[in-house]
UniProtKB/TrEMBL annotation:
UniProt cross-references to PROSITE patterns, sorted A to Z: MFS (PS50850)
Subcellular location: Membrane
Name of the protein this chain belongs to: MFS transporter
Key words, A-Z: Membrane, Transmembrane, Transmembrane helix
Transmembrane regions listed in the UniProt entry: 13-33, 45-64, 76-93, 99-119, 140-161, 167-186, 198-222, 269-286, 292-313, 325-349, 355-377
Domain Major facilitator superfamily (MFS) profile: 11-381
UniProt organism field: Bradyrhizobium iriomotense
Amino acid sequence: MHTLSADRPATRLATRLSFLVAGFGIACWAPLVPFAKERLAVDDGILGLLLLCLGIGSVAAMLLTGALSTRYGSKPIILIGGIGLAVILPWLVVASTPAALGLVLFGFGAALGSIDVAMNIHAVEVERAAHRPLMSGFHALFSIGGFAGSSLMTLLLSIHLGPLASTLIASALMLAAMIAAWPLLLRSAQAQDGPLFVLPHGIVLLLALLAAVTFLVEGAVLDWGALLIVGAGLVPDTQGGVGYMLFSIAMTAGRLGGDAVVARVGDRATLIVGSLLAIAGFVVLLTAPIAAIAMAGFVLIGLGASNLVPVLFRRAGSQRAMPAGLAVAAITTAGYAGVLVGPAGVGFVARIASLPMAFAMLGALLCLVTLTAGIVTSGDRSSGRSR
């Protein structure tokens, strides 16, 4: 019904702005965490509970957004989520009690969860209308937004502008982006009559599992990668973060070039080669005798994992087992659960075995992507090419 309006540069720009705002918004919060801890004078345990409020808000909104997008389309939810991030961000630095901050974090997480699901549903529709892969490029904008958000907030705080003034500047930028996207978003992407909730089933369950595994890998590299190479004596404490930095750069670069790769080789080959490349990265990382080789392992993991999630979202949009909006919500929620629960699971395995063993298990889990690539793309006529 809206294929013609979906396949135009303005609509693709609006989708990119949505991904950019989502990555930018959540990244602005990270440099503010130490300020919140100092302002409220709470210990690490209370801070952890407060941060959990963000995750709970996100998951709750993700579950609801799939249903609402199916009924009303993704545009209003993208706008509510993006504008919500901009409006709520300054309140994170003025909340004066732990209870108040927990409530604000819940709202911030809900805004993030809403735009996260809705923008992916919108991206599925835009990509389908374009008849060529676009999802990797959209997800690259989320990564770029994250880099821009953390960099801008760190810069503003480092010149002693103050947390409130810094967040107001960031909020103004996000509002400007959402206002620019407003008239360009599809009015009714994926809107359809039908049930507001369908229990994930069929291929969607497999897609959700693979999304959880892939996001788990990303979260584990973020939370434990530095400890792995420092503990192995490969780098000093002060250089532990270099591995994740290289991982992030490789993932962003992989996504920027991912659409061209998928257009050439198809979804199935992208899943197989990407997962094998990431697995090889884990092997290199765990057997590296020197820091330079370990860093190459981080790069391989980033490159390999970069286009797995975009392909999974594309498959969620093209499957017929359940409404596309609900399927996208299901794999988004599963992926976020992997980010939340995964690092704790890595810590548990590290305690009973070792951290290298936990990372070896991550590599083994990625084998699921390799082994099920044929099932995930079984609806394709050719070797995984998505059209």
